[in-house]
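The instructor's notes for this session suggest beginning with a concrete chain rather than abstract definitions. Hand out the sequence below and ask the class to guess, before any prediction is shown, which regions might be ordered.
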Amino acid sequence: MKNLNNLSYILCSINASSTAVAAATRYTSFATCNLLGRRSCSRFNQKQHAAATQLHQTRDTSSSSFSPEGKKKKTTIETIAESLRSNEYKKVLVVSGAGVSVSAGIPDFRSPGSGLYDNLHKYNLPYPEAIFDVEFYKQNPQPFVTLAKEIWPGVNYRPTLTHCFFSLLDKKGVLSRVYTQNIDGLEAVAGVTEERLVECHGHFRESSCTSCGSEFDAKMCQSIIEQGEAPKCNSCGGLVKPEIVFFGEVMPSRFSDLVHYDVASADLVIVLGSSLMVAPVCLIADWELVPDDMQVDSRDRAFEHT
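After discussion, reveal the predicted structure:
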C-alpha cells in the first residue's frame, strides 16, 4: 500500500474501518479513560473503588481539548492524525487489545455471538475466563490447548493495518511503547522492536511447568500442542503451558518496570481494540491517579459494571 509510511493516513483508515480507537493527551480525556470510574474490580476494596470513582468525576469528559497555548480546540481522530503528521507528538503510548487482531481472523473475547468466550460452550467451562485459569488448566487443559494451537504466533495469522501502524510509529521514532494485552505476537511480527513492546499477558516464546516451574523447550511445547495435546513436565509430570499470564498470575516484571515512566512521559495515549475490562492494563490511561495501595502486579478478571 503506497500510504503505509503515512501515519495520519493509517490512523484515519483504522478509524474508518470501525476499529475501536480512543485517544487521551495531556489536554483531553476521551471515553476510553472514563470507563475506569464506572467499573470496579473484584479485588478492589471500597477505598480503592471510591478513589477510582473520584478520578472519573474529576476528569473533563468533553470532546474538546486545550492546546499547549491554551486555546480550546475540537479533538477528533482527524486532528490527532494531523498532529501525528506534523510531528507534534514525541512520546506516543499505545494500549492494544484483542480488537486490533479481529481483521486478521482472530476472534476477540467479548463480542456477542462471535467472541471467543461465546464460542467455548462445547467445553462446558464453569465461566468463560476459566480458559485462562491455571487451576482449571490443571484439571482440564483441552480448552486452552485448542486455543493455543489456533493462535500460535506466525502460524495461521498475519499482522493487520493496525499492527503496521504500531510498527510505523516505532520506525518514525515517536513510539514510547506498545502495551498489548494480546498473546498472538502480531506486534512483533509486524516489526515493533522488542524495546518498544510490553506483552502484558505473556508470550509463546518460552514455556514452563505449572507445578514445579521447570523450564520446558518452547519448540517442543509447540509441537505437542499442535498435536492437540498438553505438554507434560520432564521433571515432575505436571502440565506445561507457554509463558502466557493466566488470571491471578504475576504480570511480567517488564510491565511494572516501565509503566510508571511511560505514562508520566507520554504526550499521547492511544487505546485500540480494548474494552478495558482486565486489570491492571485497563488503568494505564489514568495511571498517575491510581491509588498507591491498589494491587497492580497480577492479571485480574474482568471488571464488573457498578
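Then share the key points. The radius of gyration is 20 Å. DSSP finds ten helices and twelve strands in the chain.
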